[in-house]
Amino acid sequence: MKRIKKISKNRDSRKIKLILLSSIIFLCLSFLLVYNVLFLSNKVNTSSRVSSLKNYDGFGNGYKTAGWLNVSGTNIDYPIIYSMDSSLDYPVESEKYGWIANDQKNSKDMLFINGHNIFNLSSNPIRESNNFKRFEELMNYVYYDFAKEHQYFQYTRNGKDEIYKIFGIFFIKAIDINYFYNDGDIYDNLKEEYIEYALQNSFYNYDIDVSTNDQIVSLVTCTRFTDLQNGTDFVVAGRLLRDGEKMDDYKIVSNSDVYNKIKKIMKGVDNNE
Questions:
Q1: Is the separation of the CB atoms in 233 and 173 below 8 Å?
Q2: pLDDT above 70 (res 35)
């Protein structure tokens, strides 16, 4: 009788251990699921674009390929080119490409990547459309929820995938942004001035440190969001993920005064162009 009781107790003990183990496994799996949904949803698709860049046939005569851009949450996932001849333009009728200025092709310090915006120019940007084949979906960053969920973009060049952490989103007059373009030999004072401009004019105040030691890449497209007469550019600026720095969440601490003005403009517009 005692032996039966002992066997019964052992079975009960095993059941309890099994239940505890199952509960721990369930909690771990639940945590991983929540982590992936809430924590990783804002990460860029970090699948390598090295092979995409290597296998790209090229844009055409007179153009060279500089890299491959992938912007999380958008359809921007294609090559970046530059023109070897200053007389060559970047045709708006061509799709799925962006470009850099020829004299920036070797720039590692501060790079500006441009793309056309043909169908998303108004003060109430559309989030997605079958017509969007260029940089139109970059305008999604005017929406707080999108900016909060998509904090990184990837630029592939020289056989390496680089991850950039967004630190500033802002408007700038097209004529003014040319002041910051360079031939790759950027001076610290100019770079510092650009970083300061980006931070002061950003729609969102990010909890992120940026310095002149960081490698900067900015994505630029045109818009008539704020000015129908004079050319205005929309810019998403990011810094390269530092050595040993993980691709973790960081906060949008607050919306800036600039963003409050933008919201008022958007509320006054009923239809997109």
A1: yes
A2: no
Say if residue 9's pLDDT is above 80. Answer: no
CATH number for the region 50-267 comes to 2.40.260.10
| Residue 248 structure tokens | 């973790």
Answer yes or no: is pLDDT of 5 > 60.
no
